[in-house]
Amino acid sequence: MTNENQRFIPFIYKLIIGIALFIGMFIVSMAFGAADVTVKDVWQALTSNAAGEKLSIIREIRFPREVGAIFVGAALAVSGAIMQGMTRNPLADPGLLGLTAGANAGLAITLAFIPNANNLGIMIACFIGSAVGATMVFGIGAMKKGGFSPLRIVLAGAAVSAFLFAVSQGVGIYFKVSKDVSMWTAGGNIGTSWDQLRVIVPFILIGILISLFFSRQLTILSLSEEVAVGLGQKTTQIKAVLFVVIILLAGAAVALVGNMVFIGLMVPHMVRAFVGTDYRFILPMSAILGATFMLLADTIGRTINSPYETPVVAIVAMIGLPFFLLIVRKGGKAFS
Fold this sequence. Notes:
The chain is built from 15 helices and no strands. The longest helix has 35 residues, at 53-87. The chain is mainly α. The relative contact order is 0.17. Helix content is 76%, strand content 0%. The mean pLDDT is 84.
């Protein structure tokens, strides 16, 4: 389908296609795994109070795990889209610009000094860590004229990420909490519980809703700073709000699954090829397709070497690295 033809397809139809893909992937992810269950078992587990081993596996293990995958995928995709629009940097991604590494460091320090911290405490530590990581990267970029170019900011992100990962590992080794840190930051949905979701999901929902509210301003901001100022936008305040939203989404995602790079990079680029460059369309579609992509990656991780698990972070990285190189080669226009 050509770009010319895509312009004549109303967004509502594209949204329906995205939701249909998401529902289909959710059913597949619930039905496939190490435990042999059927779609009928899934339906019975979700719509009745019937008891049984398979139904308990679905309700207590697989269902919360996939719900976690949905919100993490949506959070990372939307935060990546906001970063790309706000910085006009096609390589922006929470994992590449130091946010997830900062959240990891915050989590390791919390586990070392407050070993009994609950889910809320750990998530707040991840928020602070994400903010520190992002501030360091953009601070380095601001030190020199032209420092916000896509390549320079990614290099700064790589350096800051390496430093913050070293901090988290050093803290883990020195305070003998490496095992606990690894359990949290392994980059997967294993062990996701309803208690975690009850704390973390509201923050992700709030972050996504705020981003949708500011999607029009983000579209103008993505054109250029001068255009936004010329149209009367309070760019500093809008950037501050969007920055907080990015911290909320990236920090909450790390608090739930740990390191997860490339989702925030890939999904917005795919979505732009489908819905165009208007962030009123990009953000909701990124949330839907980010959730769908994460469900797909988690299902592959659970089934490709069943009954053993392949880390989801490895699945995502195998897809994401070639995509990253493609974007670099095309100067930020992966599908244009």
